[in-house]
Amino acid sequence: MKIAIATENGFVSGHFGKCEQFTVFETEDKLIKGKALLDTSTHGHALLPSFLLSNGIEAVIAGGMGEGAKQNLDSLGIRIVSGARGNVDEVVKQFLDGTLRVNEEGCHSGGQHGGHRCNCHGH
After folding, report:
1. Cβ atoms of residues 98 and 91 within 8 Å
2. Measured between alpha carbons, how far is 10 from 23 in angstroms, rounded to an integer?
3. What CA dihedral angle connects 43, 41, 81 and 32, to 10 degrees?
4. Residue 117 contacts by C-beta under 8 Å, 6 or more apart in sequence?
5. Structural domain harbouring 20
6. Would you say residue 113 has pLDDT above 70?
7. Which positions ≥6 away from 42 have C-beta within 8 Å?
8. What confidence tens digit (pLDDT) does each residue in 23-35 have?
9. How many domains are contained in the chain?
10. pLDDT tens digits, 69-81
């Protein structure tokens, strides 16, 4: 499975559509087989789901994600995990072993969610 984590300085980015890179983990049988950075700075956020699919991504993890992005990813069969926080290496390990805790609210607008900031600063 190829997992893409929206990344900012080694941590899960607060907003799927605004991140400039994804850390891509290639996994097999819950083990990490490879890790690479995927630059998205030349793609508009509306094109990200198709771009990720074309790179073989099967799951996306982000700190926050708008409903449009969720719908687009879902329609392409890409698994979505929104509301994650922390170091990308730790987050992918937690995802693989089933212990990843997320804020289910995700990102809707303004960057304020239940007392924390997702750093999305609106859409």
Report:
1. no
2. 8
3. 110
4. 14, 111
5. 2-117
6. no
7. none
8. 999 999 999 999 9
9. 1
10. 999 999 999 999 9
